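User: Before I run my own analysis I want an independent prediction to cross-check against. Here's the chain; please return only the structure tokens and, at the end, one sentence I can use as a sanity check.
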Amino acid sequence: MTILGINAYHADSSAAIFVDGELVAATEEERFTRVKHWAGFPAKAIRFCLQEAGITLDELDYIAIGRDPKAKLKNKMALLAKNPLAGVGTVLDRIKNAREVASLEDEFAKEFGVASESVKDKIHQIEHHRSHLASAFFASPFDEAAILSIDGSGDFTTTMIAVGKGNKIEVLDSVDFPVSAGLFYTAFTQYLGFPYYGDEYKVMGLAPYGEPKYVDDIKKVLKFTDNGLFSWDSSYFTPPTKIKLSYENNIPFVSQLYTDKVEKLFGPARKKGEELTQKHKDIAASVQRACEDLIMHILNKLFERTGMKNVCIAGGVAQNSVANGKVLSQTPFEKLYIPSAGHDAGISMGAGLYLYNHVLEQPRKEAIYSAYTGSKFTNEEIEAYLKDRGIKYSRLTDDELYDKVTDKLLEPGVVGWFSGRAEFGPRALGARSIIADPRNPKAKDLLNAKIKRRESFRPFAPSILSDYVGEYFTKVEDVPFMEKVLPIKPEKHADIPAVTHVDGTGRLQTVMKDVSPRYYSLIDTFRKKTGVPILLNTSFNENEPIVNTPAEALDCFLRTDMDMLVLENIIVEEKP
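Assistant: Structure tokens:
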């Protein structure tokens, strides 16, 4: 049985393919189009997935799209009825998007040269948040768990709580658009002068530089409810009928979400590029704290309601790694699973899993701990490409490679590391990474000056061998997808300054030998030379989607001041 899951006509468009329930490939369309958060029909990602599964579109059994325009139709109509004239623009935008989803078979016909009727009967529409729930629970190791999906919005829902047991998910409750934890966070992201889709992580990175002085004021805006969910004071937010959620040239765009009442409460909004004052940092800290408090409020009530020991979380807000790192200490839950693509790209994987497990009632497969489901290239393919480009290189054995790369890191040097299959999700996990020595106090400034050219307040991540987490962090948890921020032991701050954030934390990745054997061996070689089982890890890109091919990796190496490029077993050091 083959199932293609897709996230289409929505931000972070993607595709995933399952063969008899096993995830064979999953990737985001942005990796091919080279446009961040690309929205639209993921034709290139679909072609990649079909190729990896070794089948044609005609041979495919099912197509699951993580979108159902019919979901909560009555609720949508009720919102429009409250203010029909003001809502015309927004409704027309959403109707256009719904029509694109409804005509999915025509898109397949156009892109793949098949008859639309041959595709139509294969398509199953899976509600957005049910897809998120499935991406977390059915990929988890838990036979039963409480589940939370929380994001900006999708299919008129912004938050959904549920229980998963075996191959079934039972939805318990939900929050309707426009009340949204994701849109709340985005509104204040815009207010703080970060206007682009996906900028929320900048507020999370800025927050530790401030004090949460304004939490009480923030909670005038965001209101926790006794049923374990939440509401808000709508006067602080743009009316839902005037919110513009569009995909212009396949790039997501969200119009201003806050009203002048926010400025009356907190002062004038910061314009993009203006100086970040201490007050801005304090507001960021307050927004982050309020978001954390909301997540814990929902989860604590969810525990009371379900009594379950395990919890799974997905959705865009589940990318808030600072909040994720506090779940097990601030709720009664004992175990937590978050997928590698908790954001909307994971909808493709979740839609496929929901169809396979919940709808078709097939037995669940092993838990997913590897995010390596994307592109891969052989040494021979890489050598042929480099020869064609006239690039000098050397090819080494694995042991020679680990030794030479770690020597370069010790100089100190910055290395582009391209190895194995690309990761599915927003985090580089040692397949498409830029790496450096975490002991070097100047490494952060070095990376920003040489390559990343990003805000100085944003931290870099530690990839740590899983056996050594307890030596460096105050909590020992499995963090395979870099989805949690945990406190670093105070006595270790000076040992790894490049990956210790200003508040003494790190967004870690626990590197497991059976999941990431080559990356593990590289870090272990570094450990043998330095005594430190950690590398600084950041995504292999320069203000673009993470590199997907040797050509993109080489171009990034050539236009930046990176010191070494590693492509599988091949090393490039000289620049023509």
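Sanity check: The domain at 2-129 is CATH 3.30.420 (Nucleotidyltransferase; domain 5).
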